[in-house]
Structures are given as C-alpha cells and as structure tokens.
Amino acid sequence: MRKSLLALAAGLLLAGSVSAASAADKLKVGFIYLGPVGDLGWTYQHEQARQALVKELGDKIETTFLENVPEGPDAERSIEQLVRAGNKLIFTTSFGYMDPTLKVAKKYPNVHFEHATGYKRNPNMSTYSAKWYQGRYIQGLIAAKMSKSGVLGYIGSFPIPEVVSGINATILAAQTINPNIKVKIIWANTWFDPGKEADAAKALIDQGADVIMQHTDSPAAMQIASERGKLAFGQDSEMIKFGPKTQLTSILDTWGPYYIARVKAELDGTWKSEDSWGGLDSHMFAMAPYTNMPDDVKKIAEDAQAAITAGKLHPFKCPVLGQDGKPVECKGGANLDDGQILGMNFYVKGIDDKLPGK
Amino acid sequence: MELIEAIILAVLAASTPLLIAATGELVTERSGVLNLGVEGMMIIGAASGFAGAWLTGSIFIGALFGIVAGTLMSLVFALMALGLAVNQVATGLALTILGVGLSGLIGAGFVGERITPAMHLNIPGLTDIPLIGRVLFGEDAFVYFSLALVVGVWWFLYRTRPGLILRACGDNHVSAHALGYPVLRIRTIAVMFGGACAGLAGAYLPLAYTPFFIPGMTAGRGWIALALVVFSSWRPGRLVVGAYLFGAVTILQLHAQGWGVGIPSQLMSALPYLATVIVLVLLSRARTGGSTAPAALGTVFVPDR
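YS: structure for the whole thing
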C-alpha cells in the first residue's frame, strides 16, 4: 500500500509534467526544466522560448518537456528518458545539469545536446548563456539616477561569479552618475523562497534603500517595494504586474531566437558544438520597457543600451579598481576578458561589504 | 526606533506560519502520531487558500479553503497510517510528495495573479502609539489568531480532560485502549487538527505574507515546523519561544548583512537553525533533563477486538 501510494504520487508528478504531440518523422526536440513552467522566472522564460520555437517551426518539429527535474542523479535519468523517446536535440536548461548532460552526451554520440550556463562541452554538446551583466550595467545607471537616498538594495542568491559580476556592473555604472552611491547587499542563500526574498527586501528598505535590485527568482521583492512605495527591477521575466508603479525595467531572458536558430541548424544538418555567450547584440536577453522614470533617465538607459549593443561601451572597461583601490589586471586589452568576468570573485571599489568566503 | 518596530513586525510575519503549522503538528504528535507531511499539507493550503481568495475576493474564505484543503490531505494520511496501519514515516513523506505535485496542479491557473493581502488591524489612537502600537494593535488577523491558537492548545492539553486523554493516547495507547478510549478516533481528530493548522499556515503565505501564488512557495517551512515541535520537547510554551526565535534570527541576520558586519552570509543563513536548536535544547535540559517525547510517538496501533 505504501509503495502504491508512492507510485501514485510519482505517477501524478510525471503525468503532470510530460506533454508531447504526436507525429512521425518530425525532428523531436526535448527540454529539461528545473522548476515548474509557472514559476514566472527562469523556467517560465525557457517555456516561453519553447512556445516561440513551436510557433516558428511547429510543422517540422515535435517538442517534449520535463519540468521540476532536480539537479543531480534524477537529471541524468530524465535526460536519458528523452533520448530513448527519440529526441535528437535536447536542451538542458540549468547549470546543475552540466555533468549529467555530459554523461548522457558521451553515451549517445548521435544525439545533440544544448546545456545552458555551463562550461563543459563535447562534440555533440554545446553550451549557451547570456551576458546579463550588460543589463545590470543599464540598471545601475537607472538606479543611481532614481535613488533619492543614494542607497541601493541588492538581494543576491549565492555569491557565484554570475551574481558577483552583476553586482559589480551595477555599482560601476551607478558610480558614473553618483560617485558616492552606496549599495547594501543581502544574500538570501537561495534562488527561490518568496517569503525570505520579501523579508530581505523589507530589511533593505528599512535600512534606507529606495531602489531594490534582485538576483533571486520570485516577484516577492518587487511586490514589497510596491507596497512600500519604492522602486525595483524585475528578474528573468516581466514582473510589472506585481509593481505597476514600481518596476523600472527587468532583464528578460529571451532564449527564443537562439532555440529557433539551433533547431534550424539541426534541421539543415549544420549543427555543431559551440559555446554561445551572447549579449544584447545577439538578443540572448532583452530589457523590459523602461517605465516609472522621467524621460531624461529613460534616454540615458536607451543610449547605454544602444552603446553596449553596438560594442562601443563595455561595463568592465579598464581600469577596474578592486576593493583595495588597486586596478585589476586587464587581460582583455581595453576591458576585462570573458574569463575574468565568468570567474569574477571580487568586489569593485565602492562596495563597503565583504564578499562571502573571501 | 522605527527600525526596531519594522524589525519586530517582520519577525511576527516570518514566525506566524511556523507557529501555526507547528502547533497543529504538536497536537498530532501528542496523540502519538508522527505526520511528516506538514510541508505537503502547507503547500496544498497555500494553493487552495489563494484560489479561494482569488475566486471570492475574501481573505477569510481563502483561509477557510486552506483549512479545508489541509484537513482533507490529513485525512488521506489518517486513512493510510491509522486506518490501514501503514508506516507513518513513509506515509508522511509520500503526503509531502503528493502535496507538492497536487498544489502545482491546483495553483497552475492562478500563477501570476495577485490579490489584496489580509487587512491589518487599525484602531485609531492605539495603532499609532510609537514602537508598540503597530506591533500590538496593527497586525493582521493571522498573527493574533496564531497566539490565541497556542494558548487554546495549551489550555486544552493541560487543563481539560479530553486533553489528558489525548496525551494518554500518545504516551501509552494500549492502556488508553484498555480504559475504553477510542484511540484511533482520537488520533484521527488530532491528525485532522494538524492538517487544518498546516493548511492555514500554508494559506497565510499567499494571503498575507507574499500575496501571490507560486508553486513551491512554502520553501521548506513545513520541515522547520516539524523540527520546532521536536526541539520544543512537545510543549506549547517552548514552541512559541522557538518559532519567534527562529523568525527573529532569520530577520536579524538579513539586517546584519545589510549593515555589512562582515560575517560570511552562508554562516548567517545557518544561524536561525543553530540558535533555535541550542536555545531549545538548553531549555529542555534545564527543566526536565531528558527526552519528553510522547512514548508511543510514531508507533502503529491496531486495536484487538
């Protein structure tokens, strides 16, 4: 009886998460999602991209997705399940799927894999990610312009390079507007806990921050900022519904064009293993409309966006000063190179906090 | 001054769902049943509570939806663990898995919707008193109800005859049965009470804390509630201490990070757990010197007819 209940529970979970169309001889494309498709954040954006893909190439392909797949041994089984179901191109959409994807990729050399945000590749396994720090730079400009208290509140998830480079890009941008800008950083040590994210936002506002930025996934912080009459930036997806008078902009993950391009390559037989780390220029992400700000601030944001897209402005233009005031080694010539940004583990000058673990 | 008030308010909000869920589980465990499905019942309560409030526009009806949904979930547990005498640990874990999956299904249509959160009390004159006004007279109904609930449970367990009988079932179900008490019926009611509380605690999240529903939004609070029951050595008074201490350290560590005190955030995030465990263990050692778990906790009882 116990077993049957567990089986029932597992069955319900699976039945709820597998969706597949039916048709033969179409290219089968599979997706592995970390969260539920309705998380309004990370997974939601991947699902939007899948839907865009179906809209574009629906007559030639057939897609399947598995949601709520935990990072770890379960992932390997789920990826393999998609392979056995006949999928020829499989997108695994979270960092923690890196090793499981590689393992399955080595086992099935005739199937192509696309892994998001990782760094391990194989002849049949590509990686893709986005230069979100470019968007953070634009947010930093807006935040410094809009803050009356001169104190920004930043909710971090985990102190990993992606998040740290986002904080640094924000503060470097803000300093160009207000050299004395302060940023208060609270690490939630989770990607997703609406209650805790709300508590962190409350703490930041209570300590004087009037613009809230977040690198966690739920709209809780946006909603608190809205309740308290402050301003905030969304994360991953459009969160303006939770703060119509609060959201300044949001970094939107727009994987659609990439997914369409990769599936087209697969259909043409030109797919090969690549590392795509795209920014605003390659539409790997987009900025939500600039709202709740005066026109001059909007113009600053739009100009910066255009300059970054055109490659004229780099958020980590040298010299970049470390917290000790000394310039960081400049490996990319005029700016920090990709490796330095992808492995960023220091705060820049102007952040009065210690990076956890340093 | 304002900052202290703001911190206290945040602590009350963070502690309330833990306190409500833990109080329910305490009653369940005092009757001798270990229901590990608190997280599952909470998330179902959250989804149903939000659905109820969104459909009717009433927070009160939303809370009722949460209570009913939590109770129904607990009945599934009672059917398995009490009716069919299945292992309680396994059934509880299965209940959590079921709850997490089912809540996603219930809530799927409501993701991205928002509601007006629960009203806060406002008594002109009293609510405006500096520092204590908003804490004592400006909270939402859930906060006051949670405190009334604990007092009620304490009074029931230690001052009433049915409470004594319930504790007897938890300490020695054979004797209680021999004395003619309907052990399984009493336990079923205790399990249902636990489910109702967990459902309400879950509903608190989308109705008052963060007024929207997202799958998985309980984020492990059910497990914390379970731990609080153990570390409070099954005493309602200590449960209040534990829940508020946990909430207080959670909020304070966030503030400490904002102030930039330079302690690694990973350690700070662990502090609520550490502090709560240490304080409650010290409390229970000082008073009673040893375990006070209900003696029959988690054991299967099949009455011989």
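YS: worth flagging: The two ends of chain A are 51 Å apart (CA to CA).
IM: good catch. Also Residues 199 and 221 of chain A are 8 Å apart (CA to CA).
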